[in-house]
Every structure is written in structure tokens, then in C-alpha cells.
Amino acid sequence: MTEGNVAPEGEPGFEPAPQPGFEPSEPTEPAAAQPPQEPAEPPAEPADAEDGHQPSDSPGSFGAAAAEMANETEVEGEDTAAADELAVTQMALAERTADLQRLQAEYLNYKRRVDRDRDLIRENATYAALAPIIEVLDTIDRARLHGELEGGFKAVAEQLERIVTNLGLTRFGEPGDPFDPNIHEALSHIGEDPEVKVTTCQHIAKAGYRIGDRVVRAAQVLVVDPLETHDN
Q1: I need a surface site. Which of 10, 78, 190, 223 has the fewest CB within 10 A?
Q2: Coil/strand/helix, residue 174
Q3: Residue 229 — pLDDT band, cuts 50, 70, 90?
């Protein structure tokens, strides 16, 4: 091909002349073909919605009611178990209280019995120790009656009487006392006396002694009776 001849466009060896101010762009690769996308399916509606009913988990539905009933049943079961446990605890407490009261009553009875036995033992010991001294006190009374209680013997006699009195030995029996067979021993009746209205101790042969309410020795007395009136 000679100069001045222009090869037609599309033939080999033909290059278009560049125009001033124009730069040819780099050839671009054809874009990769995108695979066809499937149309998006619409969201599935609940079966209850299709039937015109509310969903099973919505308020007021059968499922919610069943769950609520199950919760109530569970709560009632817990309350029943708690009530049973409380009843058992109260029964056990009542039994323990009854046992404690019984033990306390037994202890009080035992304490009273021990105190009573202790007092009785003390009284018996005092009785055994003082009973023989009564004869000595009788001798002192006779000596006093005859005016022979003098000097050191008088001091000893008075000291002995104070000691036995402090130990609980008391003397009883005086002329003019109404006769009481529980504490007096009548040695003899010496007649009637218009000045008395009941049988009365006129003379005390031996004084009586007792420890508390227990008579150690009855008083030995001579008694007079009231004057009897005779109807014509």
C-alpha cells in the first residue's frame, strides 16, 4: 500500500490516525455474566393466621392458658408441700413441748419429794437426839420446883433449855388447859369443879414436848370434870 492510499477500516494494517487531544482508552474486559436470581419468596404466614386465629403464643391463646395453668399448679404444689412441712414441724414442736413439760413436772415432784424426805430425816434426827434429854429437863423442873436450882447448876440448866428450844423442842402443858387426848395423858380424875365447863387439866405431873407438830411426849396431867346438874 502506497503513501497516500488509506486502507479501508477493518482491514489489516489499518490504524486510524490519532486526533489531537484525544487519548485512546484502554480496552476493557467484558463483565462476567451474572447468574439469574430466583425471585424472593414472600414470608410464610403462621398457620393460625391463615385460619384466621391468633398465634399459639399470643395472650389469650390455648397454649398460653395451658402454660398459665401449669404454673399455677406448680405454685399450688409448692404451697401444699410448704404447708405439709409446717404441719410436721408444728407437730414435732408440740411433742417436744409436751416432753419438756412432763420432764419439768417430774423434776418438780422429785424436788418436793426430796425436800420432804430431807425435812423428815432432819426431824427424825432431831427427835432421836432430843428425846433422851426430856428426862433431864424433867429433873431440872423438879429441882426448880423445890428451890434447888441455884448457882452453876442453874446456869447450866438454863443454857440447856435454850439449846433444845433453838433445835425446835417446845414445851406445852399448863394448869387450866382444856384436856386434849391428842396431847395430854390423863393420869387421874380428881373430881368435879363448878368453875370449869369442860374437862380441864388441874395439875401437870410432867410437861409435854413436841417438835413442830410431832408430839415427842404427851403431857401427863390430873384433870377435873365440870359439875353435873341433877334434875329432881
Answers
A1: 10
A2: coil
A3: low
Say how far apart CA 118 and CA 136 lie, in whole Å.
28
CA distances from 101 to 104, 111, 112, 157, 217 (A): 5, 15, 16, 55, 45
Please give the order of strands across the beta sheet that includes 219-226: 184-193, 219-226, 200-206
Range 178-200 average pLDDT:
91
* Cβ-contact 179, 221 below 8 angstroms: yes
Residue span of the structural domain in which 214 resides: 169-232
Strand bridging mode 200-206 / 208-211:
unpaired
Q: Is 31 helix (H, G, I), strand (E, B) or coil?
A: coil
Please check whether residues 150 and 114 belong to one and the same domain: no
| Integer Cα distance of 56 and 50 in angstroms | 13
Q: Strands 184-193 and 219-226, how do they pair? A: parallel
pTM of the model: 0.52
Domain boundary among 130, 158, 181: 130
8-state DSSP, 178? B
Q: Determine the Cα–Cα distance for residues 135 and 132; give it in Å rounded to an integer.
A: 6
pLDDT above 80 (res 148): yes
Does 153 map to a domain? yes
Q: What is the pLDDT of residue 83?
A: 81
The residues that bridge with 221 in the sheet, in sequence order, are 186, 204
28 vs 73 pLDDT, higher one: 73
Cβ(224)–Cβ(188) below 8 Å? no
Q: What is the DSSP letter of 54?
A: -
